[in-house]
Amino acid sequence: MLATIVVPIFNIQNYINQCIDSILPLLKHNCEIIMVAGNSSDYTNTIAFQYVEQYTNIKLIYQNGEGLSNARNCGLRVARGEFIVFVDGDDFVDAAVLTSLLDGITSNTDILMTNFYRNYENNGSQILISEINTNGSNGLENLRYIINPHKCFWNVWRNIYRTDFLRKCDLFFLENTYAEDIDYFSRVCIEKPAIQYRQEAFYHYRMDRKGSLMNNVPFVRLEQTVHVIEESIQRLQNCKETWTEVVICGFQFEYLLNIVFVCDYSKEQRKQAIGLFMESHQVLCPAYDSGVRWLVRGMNTLGVMGLSRMLKMMKRLKRRAEHRNVQ
Questions:
Q1: How far apart are CA 267 and CA 274, in angstroms?
Q2: What beta strand segments (E) does 13-65 contain?
Q3: Cα separation of 272 and 275, whole Å?
Q4: CB within 10 Å: which end of the chain, N or C, has fewer?
Q5: Are 19 and 100 spatial neighbours (Cβ–Cβ below 8 Å)?
Q6: Where are the alpha helices (DSSP H) in 105-202?
Q7: pLDDT tens, 171-204?
Q8: Does residue 154 contact residue 181 with C-beta atoms inside 8 Å?
């Protein structure tokens, strides 16, 4: 079997049809779809059953735990495809492009990294996130020329993975935490995969969805995200490979951007949140990126709370310029 598409589904009754329908054409190309269900409180699982009854290469399994990482792990364990693609159930794909990419993967490729689209639900716009500008550069060492350290380059769903590579290296997702994609990206890269880069985009990532986990940032999410980034940076620092510098820069930048949430918490949680960033010297040194250095100077000058308020204002201005919901 060519590929397995793993789709975690949880409380997405308004989106599951578009997601699965977008993948259906791949069934004609020797692929399978595995939907991994949680304990949804809406009609998500009922809709999923309808697909299982109609298509032999669509399976519905139930996760043995909770959360996105557990759902992905459950799908990875039973995947039969030579390659595996992780698709979030509220997003969708361009099946024609994905099929072409699968057909074009070279025999020695462990990961194929692509560009992707952002689809903004509130205003119906679509933006191509183009970080890969050529199909000619391959290899882990070329990550430093591909990655924009100020963008979320670590998203799992933008890649196609060789299933045997993930299993051989025991590359399952860290469960019961947020920021699992950051952790996963760092652990995958340390295994030195053979990477192929393609500028085509098959994935459509939905932004500003009501009810999305990305819309609310409770303190526990900030706390876990900060710890995952710290551990990932330390992991890469110990690796000491030439390509790690730009990845570390990206993680440092994301670490500092999370300060934006501090000013939204209650007084007691605010104190705890500030404390998370007070021992950041090891994480932020050395700082190779100018954006990271600028934010560090801002934190040293304004304090964590001052930087949080400044980032909040900049975020609102950016959203307004993009005609998105201003929170």
A1: 11
A2: 31-37, 58-62
A3: 5
A4: C
A5: no
A6: 143-146, 163-168, 180-190
A7: 999 999 999 999 999 999 999 999 999 999 999 9
A8: yes
Q: Is residue 305 a contact partner of residue 263, using CB atoms and an 8 Å limit?
A: yes
| Cα–Cα dist 148/295, whole Å | 17
Does the global pTM surpass 0.90? Answer: yes
Q: Are 144 and 241 in contact (CB under 8 A)?
A: no
**For 126-173, what is each residue's pLDDT tens digit?**
999 999 987 778 999 999 999 999 999 999 999 999 999 999 999 999
Angstrom CA distances, 228 to 147, 190, 206, 209, 261, stand at 20, 16, 24, 25, 17
Phi, psi of 166 (to 5 degrees): -65, -45
Query: Cα–chain-centroid distance for residue 49?
Result: 27
- Of the candidates 326, 325, 321, 315, the one whose C-alpha atom is nearest the C-alpha of residue 257 is 315
As a whole number of Å, the CA-based R_g of the chain is 20
Distance CA 182, CA 84 (A): 19
